[in-house]
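Holo prediction. Input below; ligand is zinc ion.
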Amino acid sequence: MKSALKCLMGLLFSCLLLPAATPSFDGNLAFTYLTIQTDMGPRNPGSRGHATCIQWLSETGEKWADTVVTQEFTGYNPYGPNDVSLTNVIYRFQPKNPDRVMLSAHFDTRPVADLDRFRRSEPIPGANDGASGVAVLIHLAQILAQFPPAVGVDIAFWDGEDMGRPDYPEEFCQGSRYYSQHPLQPVPHKGILIDMIGDSELQIFYEMYSLRFAPGLAKEIWNTAIKSGYADVFIPKYGPMVYDDHVPLSEGGIPTVNIIDFQYPNARQNYWHTHEDTPDKCAPESLQCIGDVLLMWLYGQE
Ligand SMILES: [Zn+2]
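Structure of the complex:
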């Protein structure tokens, strides 16, 4: 009796000493998911890196998601003679829960370096424009597997986002447009898109389509970021208007905010759509910031 009581006391004591495990985001680990992608080579549709990335996304999802859905379809390629095969990869957590949100990013990279001075017809590495958003979401999927949130979650990796010629918006965002015409049921009520968030000089302003489609959600995200200590990154001022995957998604019924740093790295220099979009221009601290904000937002949903 005495020893059983002692045992119980000991158990209670150790319970008091051990804090309950809480989800936390590891920016360095997320950064390894960025370089895994850039090591595949460019991931423009039709390339070997593109096929490798789809396989990696699918296999990784099998480890952590409740279900993985792939949507295969034919995409238009303005930079080549033939159509290309495109594939969206969607991780579903609690796939039957009608109360759900969507987090997404594009995984394809631009087939041309049209803003570079050299080798403009060759594909770019896409460390920031492609790999950064995917890296954060892959690590989030890993965390969701361990700490189920109160709501259902779809993590979507879009294909064919960066296929278009400038001034032809309908040639961009082919994966999210296909999804918005073929949504998975139950449909998420709202979503967050992340794109170009790996920049080591990270500064994020309100994106104007987001304020049109989901102004309340945009303010909620900026407030979450400021409360998390990232007031120097999430600036509550009007920024650019960027046609991105959140436009077809919002028009298709999922009001979505785009978290994007469109000045890469700053107003004086540009690595966007050039061969300079490499991992050394990105930082684990930037992935950490976005991961922290998304975690706080997601686990605050009920
Ligand atoms: Zn791009």
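The first helix runs from residue 2 to 17. That is the main takeaway for now.
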